[in-house]
Amino acid sequence: MRRRRWRTTGNALVRVALVWAVSTLTMLALAGILPDFRLQSDDGDSITQIGLTAAWGAGAFGLLSALVWPALVRALLLVPALVLGLLVFFLNGSLLLIALRLIPDGRGEAAPETAVVVAAVMSAVASATSTALAVRDDEAYRRRLYRLADRRRRRQGRGAAPRAGAAAPGLLVLQLDGVGYEVLREACSNALMPTVADWLERGHRVTSWRTDWSSQTGASQLGILHGSTFDVPAFRWYEKDTGEVMVCNRPTSAAELQRRAIERTGDGGLLTLDGASRGNLFSGGADQLALVLSVSARRGRANRSRSGYFAYFSDPANAVRTALSFVADAVREIGQSLRARIRGDRPRVSRGGLYPLIRAFATVVERDVVVAAVIGDMLAGRSAVYADLVAYDEVAHHSGPRGRDTDQVLERLDRSLALLARVAEHAPRPYRIVLLSDHGQSPGETFLARYGLTLKDLVRAGCGLPVSRKAGGTRSGAEARAAVLAALHRPVEEGEEARPGPGSDPVVLASGNLALISFPDVPGRASRARIERTHPALLATLANHPGVGFLLVDGVVLGPGGAEARLDVPGEAEELLAPFGPGAAAAVRRTDAFPHVADIMVNSAYDPDTGAVHAFEEQIGSHGGLGGEQGHPFLMWPAELSDPGEELVGAEAVHGVLRRWLREADGPQVPVAPPGDRWAWEPAPRDAGRYAAAPPARAAGAVGRGTSREAPQDSPPEGPLGGILPSDGSPARDETR
């Protein structure tokens, strides 16, 4: 709390200083333009002295306006409006003349009629500056939303404060993309996320859950929202039956994955009943959509492209607030990248080019639009809302999962959560806030930085295909080439080039520290015998490379030193994959049964002591495979919801828990845990983690206040922030990305 007060005081002082500086520059400009307005002595002054005189005059005028103006307005309330309008200019000019007389040595002087003009211009500029700065302030933002909520209630005939608990609670699920269980624990312990820590003290619980082998947003969010992760082997994969590369964040791929999940489960999704999906890859069956990727590729009048952004930015206050934050975050990223280069931080990836703008878009624009949409959903009283905040995941990829860069992102995310909780107090129903993540992130040097060549280069070398001179000159490239020649029973001669076997080039796709290798010319899944016959050195080259942890080929796991384990033999895979954590063998076995599993699945090496992996992409914080914190996201819920169970394995299990919580809206409340002094982190069974907390003084998680009924259909709620809610009360979709 003390840290928050100091931050609030510091922000207020910064705003005062900026308004003062702008007013000073305005006064200097007017002194240069208007002939009857001067800021120097008769003998002339230096530029520095003139600047100090302007600063003195601007400060005096601002102080008089702040102290005297409210009293004057109150005294003149009985004056007719027309007369008061004329008096405003006269009184404002009089205050400026008084301020000029307060300048030492009589350096300030203006004719009365000029003083009126100067005062009007300075007041307008100061007001515009204050407004621009205030729109970035969460407290000012919150007060504005309160006024919108009160206006909506008065229009609907509910001017009195609603009675708490009269309406069925809604469920607000907020996804903190990429924030692992351990990262959340440390952020709460280090006061980076005081709002989350406060919720935990008041009765929320938190546990770790385990992802599938494909530990990435596409699989996890599809499972959470639609109840199926079947046949999603990675973030990117090649489908031989269509010749297409599926990419989870590609609109057409997301739409197809959602269609397959609905067909498999026979259900529209988690949010089919009065739900809203905001900033997600998939809709979850919601009627209200904004920035949802799976519907953004639709054509026609039913889909207004980027309407979520348009609705948000149609409000000038939102545009100014977000534009200022966007520029600030882009500059912040440039400064952070420069400091990392100067310090010689390792590991490090390139952060130049357009990346500062891409990061600012993810950490500012998407965050602001999604938060605004969620606020609109709560004020409309929707029963289920699921929103994704992607800021941490984007920054952690390039800066690493831990450090000053990601700490700042976590702090700003926490302020967004605090804003949503305060707005929920004005919602027409109470809301139970659930936080979760879709995966964590594991640190580590990239495969390219560590070994000097990409996995694609290594695969091509192992197949005897040409590679670049730089890649071929690395130790890994040379060893692969020698292995090919030895496998083909040919002597290694200087300048001799190995000839590849028949067939087209392999397709190599990376998903964090998981890679997929497919042979397009081989129908169906290639057998191990077929691969060894066509490319006799490839499997041994990959399995024995120090940057590779294991391979999956045709139901067999291959490890370094000739180790191998059949998935259909109990215990073999568990022993070989034990370093990758509990459940690794089960996750690999499940993926092996997918129709679109790749011919060769490659998981990078993993160091259990450091938690490091080697991403096959240019990411020093990565996820997508097995190894470390990437496979251990979190689930946090209010205590009156039922306990999710001892262990959650897979996103489909999380979907089942959220389904149950939605059904509990009108059911009996679950007792809270036994009393305790403070929340504390305790290890839960089988590599999970859980909070033990003192019972709250009030119902934890039901942060909103409710009414006895929802808004009538013929009187739709006003959408705050420029029309995030449909203005006609219809279920028309608000969908884009």
UniProtKB/TrEMBL annotation:
What Gene3D superfamilies does the database record attribute to this sequence?
Alkaline Phosphatase, subunit A (3.40.720.10)
**UniProt xrefs under Pfam families:** Phage_holin_4_2, Phosphodiest
The protein in question is named: Phage holin family protein
Segments traversing the membrane = 12-34, 46-69, 76-103
Positions of the region Disordered?
A: 667-737
UniProt KW keywords: Membrane, Transmembrane, Transmembrane helix
Q: Where is the composition biased (Low complexity)?
A: 690-706
Tell me which InterPro entries the record gives. Answer: Alkaline_phosphatase_core_sf, Phage_holin_4_2, Phosphodiest/P_Trfase
